[in-house]
Amino acid sequence: MTLDRMRFLDRVVGSAVCLVLSMVHRLVSLVRPTRAPVSPRHILIIEISEIGCLVLAYPMLEALRRRYPEAILYFLMFEKIRGGADVLNLAPRERQILLRDRNLGVFLADAVRAVWQLRRCRIDTVLDLEFFSRVSAVLSYLSGASNRVGFHRYHMEGLYRGSFLTRKVPYNPYLHIAKNYMALLDALEDSASGTPPVKKDYGAIQLGLPQIRNSKEEDLAIGAKLKQACSALAASSRIVLLNPGGGELPIRAWPLANYVQLAEMLLETPDLAVGVVGLPGDRVWYERMADTIRSPRFFNLAGLTVTVREIVQVFNQCDVLVTSDGGLAHFAGLSSIHCVVFFGPETPVLYGPLTSNYTCLYAGISCSPCLSAYNARKSPCDGDNVCVKLFTPGHVKGLVMEALKSRMTVKGKGQFEALFEGPAASALEPPRHAR
What architecture is the 216-417+427-434 domain classified under in CATH? Predict the structure, then answer.
């Protein structure tokens, strides 16, 4: 299904289903008393569509494990983001319940199967991390859980998704999404009464991510793959990766011509290699970049990194990644690479990475950000994403070279030597914002 079709079905059909379920919920509550909240034992996390949000939810998920160490966690997600759950070690595969979005029939069949699985698992608590998705609200209700926590519209127009949540948390568009997720968790507490259920200062929240370290065998395997992709690589080579795509939202993407120009400018440095990473479908597109650039130190990794974990392993062997805001940008935070990430349609104030190895590019023009929970991430932009185009290849090259210089000072090692010798990151400084 296309993204627009999914939005339409969620808005029209989803709203109707939510209305029906709300009426059923009201009738049932009149017949029998409302069940008292139960201590979470079998917890379902719903994060259907955004692989990057799995990373941003990590601090909340770690806090959930600490507060309820005996609880069993289940995850409901689209099949295409499963790799993100695996690399973060969120739950074993037998507790990952998957939905496929190939077409409406497949999706509905998977949804019915998911409800049957959830009932068998005796889910008692649901944390719905989706913003105002109706399908996730419907599945949370049909799971049979006594505790249903999610974002609620309160007095906002539109965004209707029923009235059957037991803990209704307002989505705060001025608060980083990781802190919004923490509010969902805090709403589970017995003392969370009143409206809204959570009134807490998250200013001092410790945001950080685990670091995935390559084993010696993984370093050798990734090094061999890089050498195969670029025979001109040497042990002393510095590697810059580019991810020109915008994923499902092209409005996020920096122009391909700018990436070509940036690559040509970077390749003027003799010991520097430049590669592109992306999906298998991007490979032919990126080959055209190689035909234009024509340098033995330019290479194409698109489609050669099969799993998310392998992508992170590649990041550990490279120095700098230049990319748009999206899944790859957030998973870079699990590695040692420095990431230069373009924001514009969305803002780093809400979706900024959780570690310090980032430079966030955000111009803050009058129409930016234009993607939000309130418009289902559908931008009114005509395609001329000035918010991203304002950053010139020369400016980005300067940031890349600054990051390379800093890394050489800290590491002073070749790319095929061991990269990890210090402890993993914990509470780290927020990323820098560059204009």
Answer: 3-Layer(aba) Sandwich (3.40)
